[in-house]
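User: Could you go from structure to sequence for me? I need the amino acid at each position, not a summary. C-alpha cells:
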C-alpha cells in the first residue's frame, strides 16, 4: 500500500464489540438441549470466527448440525442484546476515522440481521457506511468475492483498504482480498498467534490502533 488507507473493513466480535458472554451462553444452551455438557469459554473461543456452521463442527457430527443451528438461532435471537457492549476505544476509533473522512464498514461472519440490530442498539449505525454479515451475500470471510463486493459498494479498492480484526480469519480475509490486516489482541487470539498468522500490524487494543491510524 503506497498511501495511508482510507477504507477500513472492521470485524465485529472481539474487535468492536464484546458479545462473548452471549455467544458462550447460547452455545451452552444449545449443547445442553441436545444432551451434551456445556462447552468451556475456551472451547467456544477456539470455535468461533469462521461462521456458525463451521463452529458447530467442533461440537456436533455433520448429521446433527442443521438441528443444532436451528436451536442455536432460537436461543440467539431471544437473548441477542442481553449484555452486548462496545469494546473500549471502539467509539473513539470510529469517530477519529470518520473525522479523517475514512470509509468504514463492518465485515463479519455473524448474521447480518443480528449485526445491524446490535449496531442500532448501540447507536453506532450513523458512523458506518455498511454492516455486512452472514446471509447478506453468497460468501463469508475469508472469501475474496465478499471483500471485493463490499469495497465496490463503498466505492473503494483493495489498494486503499485495511482489515481490522482479532483473529487469523481476519488476516486471511485481508490477504485473500489483497490488502493488509491490522489486528488487536482484545478478542480470540494473542499477539503470538496473530504474528504466526502473518498479521501486518498488531496492536494491544483499539486505543493504540487509533493513535496509529488517526493521530
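Assistant: Here is the amino acid at each position, in order:
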Amino acid at each position: 500500500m503506497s498511501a495511508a488507507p482510507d477504507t477500513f473493513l472492521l470485524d465485529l466480535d472481539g474487535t468492536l464489540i464484546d458479545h462473548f458472554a452471549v455467544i458462550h451462553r447460547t452455545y451452552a444452551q444449545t449443547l445442553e438441549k441436545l444432551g451434551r455438557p456445556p462447552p468451556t469459554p475456551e472451547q467456544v473461543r477456539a470455535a468461533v470466527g469462521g461462521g456458525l456452521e463451521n463452529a458447530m463442527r467442533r461440537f456436533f457430527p455433520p448429521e446433527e448440525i442443521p438441528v443444532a443451528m436451528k436451536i442455536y438461532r432460537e436461543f440467539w435471537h431471544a437473548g441477542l442484546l442481553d449484555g452486548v457492549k462496545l469494546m473500549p476505544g471502539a467509539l473513539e476509533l470510529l469517530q477519529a476515522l470518520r473525522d479523517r473522512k475514512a470509509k468504514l464498514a463492518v465485515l463479519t461472519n455473524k448474521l447480518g440481521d443480528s449485526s445491524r440490530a446490535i449496531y442500532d442498539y448501540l447507536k453506532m449505525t450513523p458512523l458506518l457506511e455498511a454492516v455486512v454479515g452472514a446471509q447478506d451475500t453468497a460468501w463469508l470471510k475469508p472469501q475474496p468475492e465478499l471483500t471485493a463486493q463490499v469495497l465496490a459498494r463503498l466505492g473503494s479498492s483493495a489498494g486503499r483498504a485495511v482489515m481490522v480484526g482479532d483473529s487469523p480469519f481476519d488476516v486471511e480475509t485481508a490477504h485473500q482480498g489483497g490488502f493488509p490486516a491490522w489486528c488487536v489482541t482484545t478478542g480470540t487470539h494473542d499477539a503470538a498467534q496473530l504474528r504466526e498468522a502473518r498479521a501486518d500490524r498488531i496492536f494491544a487494543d483499539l486505543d493504540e490502533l487509533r493513535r496509529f491510524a488517526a493521530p
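One structural detail worth keeping in mind: The chain has a mean pLDDT of 95.
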